[in-house]
Amino acid sequence: MSTQPDLLYSEAEDDLRSAVRSLLTDRSDTASVLVRAESGTPYDPELWKALAGDMGAAGLLVPEKLGGQGASHREAAVVLEELGRSVAPAPYLTSSVIATETLLALDTESEPVAALLAELAAGRKVAVLAVPLSAAPDGPLAFGARRITGVPDAAAADVLLVLKSDGLYAVEAAGVTVEALTPLDLTRPLAAVTVDRTAAATRLADAATAEAAVRRGLLAGAGLLASEQLGLAEWCLEETVRHTRERHQFNRPIGSFQALKHRMAQLWLEVVSSRAAARAAADALATDSPEAALTVAVAQAYCSRVAVHAAEECVQLHAGIGMTWEHPAHLYLKRAKSDEIALGTPGRHKEALAELVDLRAP
């Protein structure tokens, strides 16, 4: 019999949230994010050093014996909620979740795997799994492809995890060509990655082991992406409520108009529901629940749509100012739309959910 998921935040998780939010408020406010995005170099190395290394957030999923913090997906989910609230351009999802989880699914007694995990946990290196952002946990994987298009955060990577025909390899960034693409979301850059045939590469696993590990990494990424979407939706709701309280028309706050009250009340209900779905996914991954795949599919099918709706309402209810480049609402809408197709579309996750429910049927 399955146990009930723990949807509440622990005291340690609340403390972690406060620390991460304080750091992002100081180092990555929305004005700074917009300036860096416009510059074409969105990543802030000092922010990453503080978050990943000094605070230890990069090693939350890594056991202490391998140099990490020995925490769980619940704590990593809290970090992603805060990164979603600030749309910070940091390779946390790609490196500290997807790549790290993939490596943890391999033989961690192997020296190359253990050494790379220690580097990632300390924040000294960034690793990116060389698959498209759109890759779903149960979708096709391109073994042996020399050019992979749509790889997120490749420009920030020190190491790329590449699926070759005979397994998974770690390739140093010097051995690949990274061609920047023009993404919708400027805070999560995409690239086309071409692997040099002569590049030095370290084999980490055979093909069968690699496929299972990559799917595990993508599943964890999809599950915790829901927490990023939750944080994004929460910011959009809070900012919209704040604006409608302060903005006056006909000598009244526009938030007092019944039509707008109904829209924000509906959005609040959706955000609360998405919090339950995201927390359930994080808890299922943390406890290695046999229902993790089902819970992740539910979270992604729901949270993706809520994040987009929250961002759209934020833009629309800010009226003219919401349409300007200077206001950060467009950053949240673009991140929400990008996240909606990341690691499987809502439709893909609904299909996976239907298949999983059919398999469970007597």
How would you describe what is shown here?
The chain has twelve helices and nine strands. It has helices spanning 11-27, 30-39, 45-54, 73-86, 92-104, 111-121, 207-246, 258-286, 292-317, 319-322, 329-340, 346-360; strands at 127-129, 147-152, 159-164, 167-172, 176-180, 190-195, 201-206, 248-249, 252-253. The mean pLDDT is 92. Helix 7 packs antiparallel against helix 11 (329-340). It has a four-stranded mixed sheet with strand order 1-3-4-7. The chain has a three-stranded antiparallel sheet with strand order 2-6-5, with no helix packed on it. The protein is of the alpha+beta class and 362 residues long. The chain is 56% helix and 12% strand. Strand 8 and strand 9 (252-253) form a beta hairpin.
Topology:
Layout (H helix, E strand, L loop, with lengths): L10 H17 L2 H10 L5 H10 L18 H14 L5 H13 L6 H11 L5 E3 L17 E6 L6 E6 L2 E6 L3 E5 L9 E6 L5 E6 H40 L1 E2 L2 E2 L4 H29 L5 H26 L1 H4 L6 H12 L5 H15 L2
Parallel strand pairs: 1-3
Antiparallel strand pairs: 2-6, 3-4, 4-7, 5-6, 8-9
Helix pairs in contact: 1-4, 4-7, 4-8, 5-6, 5-7, 7-8, 7-9, 7-11, 8-9, 9-11, 9-12
Quickly list its features.
362 residues; alpha+beta; three-stranded antiparallel sheet; 9 strands; 12% strand; globular
Describe the structure concisely.
The protein is α+β, with helices and mostly antiparallel strands. It has helices at 11-27, 30-39, 45-54, 73-86, 92-104, 111-121, 207-246, 258-286, 292-317, 319-322, 329-340, 346-360, and strands spanning 127-129, 147-152, 159-164, 167-172, 176-180, 190-195, 201-206, 248-249, 252-253.
